[in-house]
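Write out a sequence, fold above all:
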Amino acid sequence: MSRGVTLVELLVTLAVASIIAAVVLTACAAASLHVRRVAATQAGTAVDDAMVAMLAAMRRDTAWSACRAGRCAVHTGEGHGVALVAGGRTWVVGRGLMLCTAKRCEVIASEATALQLVVEAGGHGGRPGQRTEHIGPAPARPVLVELVLWLRDGSRRSRLAWLPP
């Protein structure tokens, strides 16, 4: 004779199934968060590495300059906004942060959407100078330079450096 399932057996089976489903859901959520964290770290690393390289180029080339893409005397590719020219190379945002040489541009950080260069020229009598967005040749006096990269997700990355004359 066949025996039916009691209500207690049914409830116990459902409880075990829901515990297993909760464990699987938790594992999937943890894996998803880990993948997002790794992707964000890799994207951030490219941006940070690019900013370090930009500041290093500015330190080596005391004749660095900033110009508006399209109005620069150097190749800026499909870039727009501010272009930083240092060490014979141009850093500009187009399809991301691009590094341009005389004839071609290479995307360095695809998540970048805008570049800003803020300069504080040395003040007089120990007073701090005025911080302004910089377009033009490098100032003659020592300066504090802030590079700002705006990213697709709306966040921004910033690096400060003191550049002696």
